[in-house]
Design a protein that fits this description.
By secondary structure, this protein is α+β, with helices and mostly antiparallel strands. The chain is 41% helix and 24% strand. It contains 20 helices and 18 strands. The chain has helices spanning 53-65, 75-103, 130-141, 144-150, 158-170, 175-185, 188-192, 200-212, 214-229, 298-308, 327-335, 387-414, 424-437, 439-442, 472-477, 493-501, 504-516, 527-552, 560-567, 598-606, and strands at residues 4-12, 19-31, 34-44, 116-128, 235-244, 269-276, 282-289, 317-320, 339-344, 359-363, 368-376, 379-386, 445-451, 461-468, 481-486, 571-581, 584-593, 617-620. The strands form four sheets. It has a nine-stranded mixed β-sheet, with helices on both faces. Strands 4-16-17-18 form a four-stranded antiparallel β-sheet. Strands 1-2-3 form a three-stranded antiparallel β-sheet. The protein is elongated, with a radius of gyration of 33 Å. The relative contact order is 0.12.
Amino acid sequence: MYPMYIKKVKKSNKNSNKVYEYLHLVENIRTEKGPRQRLILNLGSVNIPSDQHKELANCIESLLTGQKELFSVDPEIERIATKASNKIRARRSEITMTDKKESSDSPQESSVYEQVDVLSLQASQLRSLGPEYVCHSIWNELRFNDVLFASGVSKHMLPLLEAQVIGRLTSPGSERHTHKWIEDLSAIWELTGKPLKYSLSSLYRAGYTLFECKESLERHLSKQEKEIFSLPERMCFFDLTNTYFEGQMAGNPNAKRGRSKEKRRDCKLLTMALVIDEHGFPKYSKLYPGNQGESKTLRQIIESLIAANPALAKNRTVVMDAGIANAENVEYLKRNKFHYIVVNKGKKDFSTDDTDQMETIRETDDCTIEVKRFERDGEALLLCHSTARAGKDYGIRNRQETIFLERLQYFHDGLSQKNRTKSYPKILEMIGRLREKYPKASKLYDIEVVPEAGTHKKIKATAVLWNKRDKYKEISKFDGCYVLRTDRLDLSDTEIWETYIMLTRIEGAFRSMKSHLGLRPIFHQNEKSANAHLFISVLAYHILHTIEYKLRQHGENRCWASIRESLSTHQRLTIEYNVKKNHKIVRQHMRVCSQPEPDHKNIYRLLGLKEVPLPRKIYDANV
C-alpha cells in the first residue's frame, strides 16, 4: 500500500457556472508510463480545513492497517475517516471476492493455517443481520422484485426499495432514521447488494416509487400469498383506522381533524381502510381524509378490491363492525350478492326474557359465550352475551354513573351556596352537556330542574331532582350483549360467532402497524410523502404476517417484536489481524457472521433458512 493523501478537486456546472469542491483520497503508484495518481475514494464535499487533510488521510490509513498511533484525536476527523474506511473495505471485499471466484474453479480448502499475531486481533463494523436475513428471505419468497421490475423499476433501484421496507420492520422510523440504520447499524446491503446510487433523497424517491406501484404490488402479493399458503379467501374483513400527523400539514389536503383513535384531538389525521382474509393476510388498502366517515367507505373499497382482484367478486362473506354496517351498506352488499356478518345497532328485536333463555356455545376459565338466535326475512339475528364483556360494560357504566350523580349533586348543592351557578337556563345547559358527556349513565335517569316562582327574566333554579328510570334493570341485564346480523343461514350459531371474532385479526393488523412498523405519528408535511409512509407500513405488514403465519404453522406463536429482539444478537462483523506472509506483515480483514445461538437456529429451521446467512470474506487491507 502506498501512502495516501487528500487532493482537492474543483468541478463546475456548465449551466450555472457554479464551482463545486470535492476531496479525493488518492495514492501515488508506479506504472509503465511513470508515477501516476490512483483514486481510492471520493470523499465528497467534506468541510474540513486544508491543514487537517494530512491528518484525515493518516487516520483513514491507520483504520485500514491497524496503526493505532496514527488515530486522530479530533472526533469529526475520526468520524469522517471511519465512514471512508468502511466504504474502502466494502469495495476491496467485493473486488477480492470477485477475483477469487474468477481465478479458482475448485472449492476452497476446509482449513487454512497461517501465522497470526493474536495481540493484533480486533473486531469492528458490527452490523445487525438476523432480522434483516429473515425479512430478506420472505421478500424473495413473495417475489417483490419480479413485480417491481415488471412495473419498470430499474434493477439498480431494487435494493433501495427493499431496504426501505425491511427498515420499517427491523428499525421503524422516518427516512432519516432509516438512512442512519442502513449506514451504521445494518448489514442489509450485504444481503441485497448495494444500489447504484444511495442518499437520503434516494430513500424518499424509493417510497414514492413503491406507492406508484401500489395496485400492481397488492394484486401480486394477494395472488402470491394465496398460492404459497393455499388460502381459501372465503371471508373479507373490513375496517378503518387513523393515524395522526405532527405539524401543521398545510401541504396535505387529506390531513383533516376528526375523531382520533389515539385520542390526539390536537392533531390532524389520515384514515386508512384495510381488507384482510380469514387468515389475516391483507388483500387491499386505501387512504382517505382524516375526517372520513366509516360508513361512507365500504362501496369504494369493495369496488377497488374487485377491480384489483376480480376473483373476490363472488360468493364472499364480508365481516364488519357496527360503525360501517348501516342499512345502506348492508343493502349494497345484498344487491352485489355479497354475504355478510355484521354487528347490528341496537337490541330492539330482543327482550330481557331472551337473556334468560340463552345457550352456551363456548366456556373457558376466563369467559363464557351464550347466544340466542332469531330468524326473519332471510336473515339470522344472534344475541351474544360475553361474561368478559359484561364486566367491561358494567365497569364503564358504573364509572360514568358515579361521576354523573356526583355532578348532579354538585349542581344541586351549589343552588344554596354563595358564588355558585343558580340561573335556571344555565343549569339546564350544564345538565344538557353532562348528558352528552356521559350517555351510558344519562339514559338511566330522569332529571328535573325546579325553577323558582315568578316570570321575571333572571329566574333561578331551586332544586335539581333525579330518579332512576323503570328500564334501569332492563338495561343492566343487557350488559355484555351485542347482536350479530347475517344472511348466512347455513351457518350454526357457533360458526357465526367464531367468524365475527376473526374481525379482531384486522384490529391486530392495525395494532402491529402502529406498534411494530412505525405507522404513527406521521412527520411528513406533503401528501405524496405521507401516502408513501403509510403504504410502506402495509408492505412491511405483508412480510411480518407471513413470518408469523409460517412460524404458527410449526407451533411457534411469538409476535414479530419478540422474534426481532431475539434475532438482533445475530450479527455480521469484521475481524482484523496481522498475518505473516513471505516474511512480510500483512493486515487482513475477515468478514464473518457471528455464531447463531440455539433460538436463532430454531427460527431459521422453522422458516426453512440456512443457519449461516452470508459466506466468509477474507481480504488484505494492503490491496
